[in-house]
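Hi all, posting the design record for the shared folder.

TITLE: backbone redesign
STEP: 1 of 1
STRUCTURE INPUT:
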């Protein structure tokens, strides 16, 4: 895996870095896919919603170009207030999550189009896992999920939820992350299914072998903090535009 050689993940813990997160999301969810036309802020070019108030935002930066290339958010809410509980019928209602932070939903997982195309070295690194077709995208995706996992383990998260389309669910399972489908499919920006997992146990299969993905997830300190960056670093190196590309439907809502 070349993720740590090429990319780095940051927790957006300042107003400026959160604004950058919303700016990148605008490029994907408004300009490219048109999934969020009702929240277009044409002048500011930001995409956000009410869930961002209680979310933790992660960003990925290319170490070579210093461009910001993708992101993810963890929505921290009691289960009954998560988006997935509103969009889906869950087969087994989880226990009541009283303490704030025990339950999160993985949301707005995205990679900008210019960084989705597979590079030769990335394809070789992921080929054994059957992910070479869009290796760059999946490597960045795994880097974000790894950071979210570490954050969850450090902050008392017990369960997390995903609302994903079937192809991405298969890929997540293929790399060794065991999520359970917890309800029937729903039409929400295409066909999607709700999945859940216990953050402590759903990665066990990743560590069962000495492959590159297992080694990747064995590392500690998988994200840094935007508050330790110079503010100029957040304003610079944001791509001016995104060219529509393949696998765009795999962005998580």
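Okay, here is what came back for every position:
SEQUENCE:
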């Amino acid at each position: 895996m070349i993720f740590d050689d090429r990319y780095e993940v940051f927790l957006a813990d300042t107003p400026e870095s959160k604004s950058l997160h919303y700016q990148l999301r605008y490029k994907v969810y408004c300009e490219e896919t048109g999934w969020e036309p009702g929240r277009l802020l044409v002048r500011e070019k930001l995409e956000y919603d009410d869930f961002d108030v209680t979310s933790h935002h992660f960003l990925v930066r290319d170490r070579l170009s210093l461009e910001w290339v993708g992101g993810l958010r963890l929505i921290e809410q009691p289960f009954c207030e998560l988006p997935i509980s509103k969009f889906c019928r869950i087969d087994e209602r989880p226990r009541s999550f009283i303490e704030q932070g025990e339950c999160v939903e993985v949301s707005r997982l995205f990679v900008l189009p210019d960084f989705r195309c597979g590079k030769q070295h990335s394809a070789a690194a992921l080929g054994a896992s059957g992910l070479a077709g869009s290796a760059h995208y999946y490597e960045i995706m795994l880097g974000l999920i790894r950071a979210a996992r570490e954050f969850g383990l450090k902050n008392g998260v017990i369960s997390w939820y995903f609302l994903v389309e079937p192809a991405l669910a298969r890929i997540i399972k293929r790399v060794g992350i065991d999520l359970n489908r917890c309800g029937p499919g729903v039409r929400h920006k295409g066909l999607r299914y709700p999945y859940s997992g216990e953050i402590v146990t759903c990665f066990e299969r990743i560590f069962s072998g000495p492959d590159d993905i297992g080694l990747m997830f064995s590392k500690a300190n998988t994200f840094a903090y935007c508050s330790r960056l110079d503010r100029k670093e957040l304003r610079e190196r944001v791509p001016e535009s995104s060219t529509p590309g393949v696998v765009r439907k795999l962005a998580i809502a």
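COMMENT: Helices lie at 3-6, 15-32, 83-87, 120-126, 135-154, 166-174, 212-217, 231-235.
Let me know if anyone wants the other runs.
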